[in-house]
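Lay summary

Proteins are chains of building blocks that fold into shapes. Our project writes down both the chain and a compact code for its shape. Here are two examples, one after the other.
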Amino acid sequence: MCGILGSVNIPFSEDILDLIAHRGPDDFGIERFDVGEHSVHFGHRRLSIVDLSPAGHQPMVSPCGNYVLVFNGEIYNHQELRQRLPKDLEFKGHSDSETLLYYLIHFGQQGIADLNGIFGFAFADKVKKQIILARDPFGVKPLYYSQSDKGLVFSSEIRPIRALHNDGKLDGQALASLLRLRYNAAPRTLFTNIQKVPAGHFITWDVSNTDIAHESRFYAFQLPKTSKGSKRELIDNYGANLEAAVKRQLLSDVEVGVLLSGGIDSALIAALAKKHYQGTLKAFTIGFEGEFDEDEIADAKETADLLGLEHHVEKISFHDFLGLIKECSRIVEEPLATTSMIPMYYLAKLASSHVKVVLTGQGADEPLGGYTRYRSEIIREHLPSPIRSVLKPTFQFLGTKNDQWIRGAKTMEISIEMERFLSVYEIFDKEEIARLIGEDDHLSEGLIGHFYDKLDCKSRIHPAEKLMALDTRLNLSDDLLNYTDKITMNFALECRVPMLDLELVRFMESLPLERKVNYREGKLIHKAFAEKLLPKKIINRKKKGFQSPTNTWFREEMDILKGLLLDPTSSFAKVFNLKYVDQILNAHASGYNKEKQIFLLLGIYYWFDSNDTN
């Protein structure tokens, strides 16, 4: 797990590479070489996890000198991949980086689909005069790039690209899409000249000529055919796949820990890790000072005691809450509406003081139907059209202030599938976005539609399955996994996601819908298997989510929020309608839950504050 930086015809020095030094404090390297007529620089900051010796140093150059690799991530099946390579190859060490280098040399672009891991890498082929950028199937690792007449720059983070390509302007259409979806779906960012490689894609740059041409391709697997078998057989197969995934992701030459919440997902990962881990398994949990329902320390402690984990706990207060939101916004680089990045900051800081690698339970909800929106699709098909059409006005008549209920009721009456999916995601609807920034959202449907088409969602039997597949590749990669990677790597901590193991997700997405979710609950097969390892009181705990008490804090500190977001001299004020922002703040103060909307607006405010967008 590391940080990569590279360029074509735009040289950089060690001080630019050091902008991502936090991602890899153990080693670094810069390699300069020519491909055709072009000057290429590859840079790498290393966090040593597998093969701590100099044999794992990057940039990694083949013995013949024709191939160069910079790689961020882990290839969990790399030992299996080595067996497919020529037997006469002489490896210098046992790193997955060296396996990847030779695998790409021998199998080229076609070999990318064989990689079971989390990765963002660049591979230069001097013979074919090509550079390939690739991102893992579910976008666990970020990878950004920018191309102009000057050349090409790519990196694990935006910061170095901005330093080398400092001509970025605000993309107004991307801002409208961000306000709607709560994240910028790949390939867009808020900068007009900076894109990100979408999950499950690789981009090939042809550097044989003066002009640098590129082509983006989707390499990841299509949605599989439905698995057959009895309920018991499917549960057993699910358990075998999950256990194999956890075992694979324990691959490390340094100590591994677990991020432990009070819920079933992290508890199940911890139970399986404990079974296969050699040594004392450490677990880490964050709670909040004061009385908040979101605090999970007591539940997590019960799980840790049951499994015999070495449990490390920290309670946090919010004496500098705005300062923390600003710092998280700086680290994550892209504004998000997800408040769970706040506890993640403290959790990563705590864990990094004990281990270099952690496993997390993140990624179970999307492919296994854990969210309400999937159950809503199942409920919707059983509701007569007249009932669907009166749900929203009924909630409004009753005076409910639950924003989630109102928006959920609104989606029930939408018959066109893509419009309904967009409505499910909305933080702000199109009318609200127009009032906020005077811009309509023309992007979101196409960004989601790209994966809808690539996954051939039209052939899926049920809309809930389509929504789950889209979330697994969009909501996860560009929202939840985005902040998880940036924040953990800010503390030089590698975060692994066993639930998104390639083979496991293939199996989960092949399961019949009724084995994953019904109108009452989701993750059915997950819970059924968990009964073999965990007591029912852990399995059936009420889902709290990894949240922070921002809802309460925003009401208590409304004057401070208004002082920031309503400042007419700010860069934020040049783009946003402050009168409407004030209405949103007042609605939250009066009891409506506008927590996510306010958190997103704060993130955008700090983004403007730290980025000159001309």
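And here is the second example, written the same way.
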Amino acid sequence: MRKVLLTCLSAMLLFSGCKDMFEPAIENNLELENAYTNATYAQGLLLNGYTRIPTNSWSFNDVATDDAVTNNINSGFLKMATGQWTSMNNPVDQWRNSRSAIQYLNQFFAVSDSVKWAVDPTISRMFNDRMKGEAYGLRALYMFYLLQHHGGQGINGELLGVPLLLQHETVNSDFNQPRATFDACLQQLYADLVKAEELLPLDYSDSSPVPAKYAGINADDYHRVFGASFIGRMTARIAKGIRVKAALLAASPAFNKGDVTKWTNAANYAAEVINLRGGLTNLTDKDLVWYNATGGIDGLGAGVNPSEILWRGDVATNNSLERDHFPPTLNGSGRLNPSQNLVDAFPMANGYPISDLTNSGYNALAPYDNRDPRLKLYVLVNGSTAGTSNTVINTTVNSTTNDGLNKVETSTRTGYYLKKLLRQDVNLNPSSTTTQKHYNPHIRYTEIYLAYAEAANEAWGPQGTGGHAFSAYNVIKAIRTRAGVGVSNGDPYLESIKNDKDAMRKLIRNERRLELCFEGFRFWDLRRWNANLNETAKGVSISNGNYSIIDVENRVYQSHMIYGPIPYSETLKYNNLIQNNGWQ
């Protein structure tokens, strides 16, 4: 993929600087008609869809939930979570980005069939097929983000999505289009994914057989178009993963009025992806640290995925995450501070919640002992070591370092620092600064497993399989075993609830909270579940061996905020654009 991106860099730069989602001024840019004879220009339209993917960077909107706070007083998420979220001030807006991406993709569709992609007409046809498949998959992805960020109940009481944009718009188009229903948008998303799967291979490979639809084409020519050089671009497997994400959103309480079929669909879609990976047999503890050397990042070949990753961005060598999130003594800014709420959500190593004082063995005077191993893997707690020098991090109120609670503006506000996603082999010392490899996942398999568990539990109960080889219970058992939870005692807590749909739902949601923490899921999960958005973010004040729970930051969300707003400026311009209920 990197070769192709470099080849088309000039085309991408042409679009990345545009200030308008429609055709730029003629004197400054090539006209769309140039795409017919300029394949690089045409492909630039498609590649714009890749450059806008939201997960190309971390949002860390977790700091707007009960999982974390930030010490950055200028954070838009902090302001949003504390009462300043409006349709004019929306840090999680996707309206412009996703609709612009769809506009570029629609421009690509408008010219693709007329572009001369290669001298040989048969190879040109294959290139056209593949890139149209990519565009369909990307258009579906951006519809998912629009539904997640802006779908909701309109002031007319109807569950709405966004205006359907299926054609290239020009300055002469009628932009005053009404929002389609949520279900109509979902069906269009599914239709695009079907087309993507028809046109794309499951994976790009230099050894895959030539499919029947290209009978008569030799293998070398086929792999020139569908070979390993394009790993990282949209595939049928990725399209299936996008379908899972969309189906889970559509089945969730905020978007579903009790239709069990939607849960069944989500479970079936997830099972298909899981089966393609080999079921539940390939989970390893390396999956938990896909972001560091143990997880194999340093040895990844170009475009190759570790076992945990379904789709990812490119590997980059830097230390920006560590600069933002390392504690002050390691020359970081300590920006994201995990909450006590999240820390308490990690069970004991024996599998029992810490609230079960009879069975868990939790000790309030040694709260981090004998806990779920994921706690110290993902959260830097008091007394842990970090960095290349294994520095002991002291977060107590009387700490002699700036790592202590509220010592300076870069100190923790909760008594905890972020550890997940960070490379501990990065050194930020100004005299010997180092960098390491990082990448951003677009879809992880753990997300798919947890989607299946959630949907299967709702559709068939904890142990129902719907005809598949595994149940919600089986998936959660595998995930907890991988994490090292309940492995020494058979996980009696899980066994005690394996026939209780409500208790299993609570556990599945908690496992999702733990496994996907700090990756931008909690903010959306709470909303699609119609859950409590106003849980006060808490921390811990440690002094002389005493642990006192403290309130750190109140959450100020109103009930209608389970749905995001349509941008106020858009509703002013277009009177057919209905706002979501409760927003101005």
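What can we say about the second shape? The CA atoms of residues 316 and 438 lie 5 Å apart.
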